């Protein structure tokens, strides 16, 4: 096995346990924190066909994949979603739909259930219609609320995913109250990661540490109140942690993303790193890409790590952090992740935090994913 000569101990024993299949970059929303590439529109006409996606599913299953997320963009925009879910079910893959909820009619939900969909992750941003609609750049709030109701009505296990940033961090209390009322068992408050669109809007989106701590305290009060009925995750941004996150559980360890045009990557953001050789499932087998391609081998394991990571006692826990973030913040994906306080590049993260901590008011409008639309009304610090 190619992994052996890289000195690895992969949790998945060399298998891509978790697949992230980005069926399309198309989306009816215009979120300013979207993690799709800035040039997503360039890939619009290159989406894999139904037959090509089925081949990806077969190949991934043969490699040992167990579960997958159909994601995007908005995966509901693919008319063949039910067909792909059914195929995944037939070959023994556990399917999760990661959706904004826009377009999730009751009819479609029932069709997906009949096809074998097992789990849904629904993203919501706020309990207030005006705030949600302004944030996502579309009339979406009512549709999202209805999608949540339908998902519960039809008995799907679900995670309510709330991307957290400055403009909605004050919504944590109201969101939990609403979700608990609806009987949602898992709520994830995910402080956003600053790549692509979110990085462009970072100074406007980043909450202060005090706001993060306050929101965490609200979550803890609800945890006490709700007990085992509801599990609430609250992910602290690594900018404030002083330690890097174990991104993807290590590069090329258990995670495999396939982009709409068939490019297979160790994470959804890898295309931000220049100089890497990206391969498409249209040209190469998924098995070769996973095991042999220079892209997946580049930062796999811990043998390649620079100092101070290579002599760090935590390298087997965090695998050196996030390559994409490191490139975006330092210009070299091979540096030590600047989120780590031991990194010689930690200053760039400290500076971003300091800028945010000092800002009294937001200065700039948020840049929307697709255009230069402006939202300004709820930006007081
Ligand atoms: Fe690419 Fe972290 S997002 S390695």
TrEMBL record:
Binding site for [4Fe-4S] cluster: 27, 31, 34
Domain Radical SAM core residue range list: 13-228
SMART domains: Elp3 (SM00729)
PROSITE patterns: RADICAL_SAM
Cofactor(s) required for function per UniProt: [4Fe-4S] cluster
Enzyme Commission identifier(s): 1.21.98.4
UniProt-listed InterPro entries: 4Fe4S-binding_SPASM_dom (IPR023885), Aldolase_TIM (IPR013785), Elp3/MiaA/NifB-like_rSAM (IPR006638), PQQ_synth_PqqE_bac (IPR011843), PqqE-like (IPR017200), Radical_SAM_PqqE_MftC-like (IPR050377), rSAM (IPR007197), rSAM_sf (IPR058240)
Bound cofactor: record note: Binds 1 [4Fe-4S] cluster. The cluster is coordinated with 3 cysteines and an exchangeable S-adenosyl-L-methionine.
Keyword Cytoplasm on entry: no
Reaction(s) catalysed (UniProt annotation): [PQQ precursor protein] + S-adenosyl-L-methionine = E-Y cross-linked-[PQQ precursor protein] + 5'-deoxyadenosine + L-methionine + H(+)
Described function: Catalyzes the cross-linking of a glutamate residue and a tyrosine residue in the PqqA protein as part of the biosynthesis of pyrroloquinoline quinone (PQQ).
Complex and partners: Interacts with PqqD. The interaction is necessary for activity of PqqE.
NCBIfam families with a match to the protein in the record: PQQ_syn_pqqE
Entry's family note: Belongs to the radical SAM superfamily. PqqE family.
Protein name: PqqA peptide cyclase
Organism whose genome encodes this protein: Dechloromonas hankyongensis
């Amino acid at each position: 096995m190619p992994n052996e000569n890289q000195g690895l101990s992969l949790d998945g024993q060399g298998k891509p346990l978790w697949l992230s299949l980005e069926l399309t970059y198309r989306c009816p929303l215009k979120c300013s924190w979207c993690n799709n590439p800035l040039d997503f529109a360039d890939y619009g006409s290159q989406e894999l066909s139904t037959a090509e996606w089925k081949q990806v599913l077969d190949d991934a299953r043969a490699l040992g994949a167990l579960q997958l997320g159909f994601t995007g963009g908005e995966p509901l925009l693919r008319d063949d979603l039910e067909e792909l879910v059914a195929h995944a079910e037939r070959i023994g893959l556990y399917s999760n739909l990661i959706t904004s909820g826009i377009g999730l009619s009751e009819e479609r939900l029932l069709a997906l259930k009949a096809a074998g969909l097992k789990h849904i992750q629904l993203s919501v941003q706020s309990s207030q219609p005006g705030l949600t609609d302004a944030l996502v750049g579309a009339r979406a709030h009512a549709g999202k609320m209805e999608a949540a109701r339908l998902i519960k009505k039809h008995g799907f296990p679900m995670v309510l995913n709330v991307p957290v940033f400055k403009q909605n961090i004050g919504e944590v209390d109201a969101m939990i109250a609403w979700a608990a009322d609806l009987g949602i068992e898992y709520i994830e408050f995910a402080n956003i990661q600053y790549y692509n669109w979110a990085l462009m809007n970072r100074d406007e989106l980043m909450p202060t540490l005090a706001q993060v701590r306050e929101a965490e305290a609200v979550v803890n009060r609800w945890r006490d109140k709700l007990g085992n009925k509801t599990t609430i995750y609250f992910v602290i941004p690594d900018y404030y942690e002083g330690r890097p996150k174990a991104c993807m559980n290590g590069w090329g360890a258990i995670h495999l993303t396939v982009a709409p045009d068939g490019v297979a990557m160790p994470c959804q953001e890898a295309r931000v790193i220049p100089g890497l050789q990206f391969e498409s499932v249209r040209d190469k087998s998924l098995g070769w890409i996973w095991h042999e391609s220079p892209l997946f081998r580049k930062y796999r394991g811990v043998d390649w790590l620079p100092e101070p990571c290579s002599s760090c006692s935590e390298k087997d826990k965090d695998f050196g952090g996030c390559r994409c973030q490191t490139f975006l913040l330092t210009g070299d994906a091979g540096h030590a992740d600047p989120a780590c306080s031991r990194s010689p590049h930690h200053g760039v993260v400290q500076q971003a935090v300091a800028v945010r901590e000092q800002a009294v008011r937001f200065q700039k409008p948020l840049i929307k994913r697709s255009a230069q639309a402006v939202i300004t009304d709820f930006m007081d610090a």
